[in-house]
Amino acid sequence: MSPSCLCLLLLPLLTQAYLRAGSGNGLKAQQKVGRVAEACTCECCLSEEAKSFQSKLACVPRGGASSLLTETGDGDCQTLCLKPDEGKVAEFFADSGREVDYSRFCMAACQPMGSSKDLLCADKEEAAAPVVALAASAPAAAAASGPAAPPAAAEEDAAGNSQEEQVAEQLAEAAVLQAANRATQAKQAAALSKYAYEKLAHSRNEAAEAAGQAALEEVIIDARKDAGEATQIRLGWEEQAKAHAAQKALVAAAVYKNAKVKSLTIADAWEQSAADLLKVGKQYEEYSTRQQMGEREIKKQLEDDASNSALLAKLHTAEVAVEHGMVAAKKYAKQANAAKDEAARIRGNGAWYDQAEAAAAAHAMYADLPTGVMPPPLPPLP
Predict the structure, then answer these.
(1) What are phi and psi for residue 376, nearest 5 degrees?
(2) Which of 9, 76, 183, 278 has a 20 to 30 A CA-CA distance from 29?
(3) Which residues, 6 or more positions from 192, have their beta carbon under 8 angstroms from its beta carbon?
(4) Tens of pLDDT along 133-184?
(5) CA 82, 340, 332: angle at the middle one, nearest 5?
(6) Cα(267)–Cα(7) distance, rounded to whole angstroms?
(7) How far apart are CA 169 and CA 178, in angstroms?
(8) Model confidence, pTM
(9) Is 374 among the domain residues?
């Protein structure tokens, strides 16, 4: 994408960010109060309609001013993030500070998954990597391979797998060409068979019927044999294409599965916080109860000696402690309820991740299938 097109894409987003910030601090002002910038991730980028003619979709941030352009909310994402320490993205932002704007990161490091809006983007480097094996065959492959290979060996294995896939694709293309050649030969054999039959019909009175019928049957048998071989080759090629498309579906689904797991982890943290706050509130409530009991004892003593200044001071202290304990108990109870509500809200978004996972898997599988191949059922998603 040319720099001019990139500027056209970023101009509406930067304008809205500046207007919402209300000052020259712009993007810094949109950062949520008390939040520290986290590592940049494509899970905070959504696919939206592009503003150029070179691409239909572009990746935009979920958080900040760009969340107004989406239908899925900000996903608890920020406007700034910490750039990677290595890789092509780190080289791209080499002249930038430690924190970068998500609008730049989404355009530079992420790419849309499919042709639909409001879907999470995927990392460009991960999307370009070789497709991993099916999840169902991973345990058996791990058991057969023995101990885990070192990182260098893993890279060699990945390179070998990529070469094997290229060889498999070349073999599949050769098989299709061979099948087409055999189909042509079958067609020619059928034409020859028809010609032989017509010639035999005209010369039935001159040639022996048995010899002509035998020649015709031999031609038909050869034609059927060639057609059967071509059909088997075609079926084998289709099965390979379906298996490759199923792997693509699993890779696309894994993006949303990982995002859902991260979201549920955050919900667990909110629930734990609610439990802790509720426990503290109970402790303050018990403290207030103890102070009330002490207050009653002091009042009984004052019935006999109402002018005792020491008892009056203790009574005042007990009353203040009771009031403080009740206020603190109510405060922590309110915070605990708010934490529970936040956890419930996050868990309520789990259905959206499941739907997006299935949709992304189906789109990736259908897009990878060659024309004319019937799509298989979706593989079991992780």
Answers:
(1) -80, 170
(2) 9
(3) 219
(4) 334 444 444 444 444 445 555 566 666 667 777 777 777 777 777 777 777 7
(5) 100
(6) 38
(7) 14
(8) 0.34
(9) no
